[in-house]
Amino acid sequence: MKWDQLELDPRIRAAVRRAELRRVGDVLCVSALDLQRSTGLSHSDVQHLLATAAGACRRHPPVPAVLCGGQRELRLTVGCPVLDGLLRGGLPVGGVTELSGESGAGKTQLALQLCLCVQYPTQHGGLDAGAVYICTEDPFPVRRLQQLIREQSCLRSDVPPSLISSLQFSDHVYIEHTADLDSLQVCLSRRVPLLLARGLVRLVVVDSVAALFRSEFQADDWLERNKRLLTFSSILHHLSQEFTTTVLCINQVTDVFSRSDSSGPLSSNMSPALGLAWSNQVMVRLMMRRLQRTVVRGDQSSALRRLEVVFAPHLARDGRDAAVWREGVGGVCSSDTET
């Protein structure tokens, strides 16, 4: 996006150009103090510039790929009609989707479920291909994946049993482990494109995006961290657009503390990690929360979760209650009981 497309004072536009900040997204990689130094703008001008740039990036994210002939946009089902209803059919194909939440919220559970959903034909909400799952911190949960495979007929009652039994799910989930940012870049730049080019995968999962950036950079290294972060997001966007692929990044959260008034106690609220520079690189931001309640279905019980849309160009801000069952992540029904 060009600066001329934004509603900015000509004086601010000229200062930005003198500082050689050519792209709108460039200002989001620089602190407000450094922007003041490089542009010579006042504090209020810089704050207005940052707010305008952030709003523009959110209003104009990468556009999801559409099927030829003007047909409906491609979506990857999450395997549950309740959650698909929230997402208008599932995750978009093309662009980067972020799923954030605290530990134990169910993020990895949903990602594993998507690794199986993507293998179904398009008439059943899949993309008729496999998934590549990139682990950056924890070992890949092989046992849980095998359990989900065994329970597919229960989760996907909308699919003929003969089709489920014919799919070799475990053969089409490609697992990668990356211990540092350099190996992650090699994986995304060399190995993953080979799988995509051969049509073997149509889903790329990075679990988690924050782990390596948090471990390799200190607070003073924010500029270098943001440069690497933008390089990483650029690779993901390229893969999603060139190969018409769903990209899912699992993200950690940080606590943000605030006071309701000057004398009240501090309250904590979760915010996705990696800050504004990263948030403006994702097209869809989802969050999973673990609630302090339990839900029961038959002989199973689960902590209640909630999947929320934080922002997306095609979705309203809304949420649905969900739970993690043996067969996978599913929306909570009226027949389920809370305790």
Number of strands: 14
- Terminal CA distance reads 50 Å
| CATH topology group of the largest domain | Rossmann fold
Question: What is the ordering of alpha helices and beta strands?
Answer: HHHEHEEHEHHHEHEHHEEEHEEEEE
> So what's the CATH class of the largest domain?
Alpha Beta
Please state roughly what percent of the residues sit in beta strands, choosing from under 5%, 5-15%, 15-25%, 25-35%, 35-45% or over 45%: 25-35%
Unreliable sequence segments: 61-72
Radius of gyration: 21 Å
Helix content: 25-40%
The CATH homologous superfamily name of the largest domain equals P-loop containing nucleotide triphosphate hydrolases
CATH 2nd-level architecture of the largest domain: 3-Layer(aba) Sandwich
- Derived from helix and strand composition plus strand pairing, the structural class reads alpha/beta
User: How large is the count of helical segments?
Assistant: 12
Q: What is the global morphology?
A: globular
What's the oligomerization state? single chain
Number of domains: 2
Domain RecA family profile: 72-253
Organism: Pleuronectes platessa (European plaice)
GO molecular function: ATP binding; ATP-dependent DNA damage sensor activity; four-way junction DNA binding
Protein name: RecA family profile 1 domain-containing protein
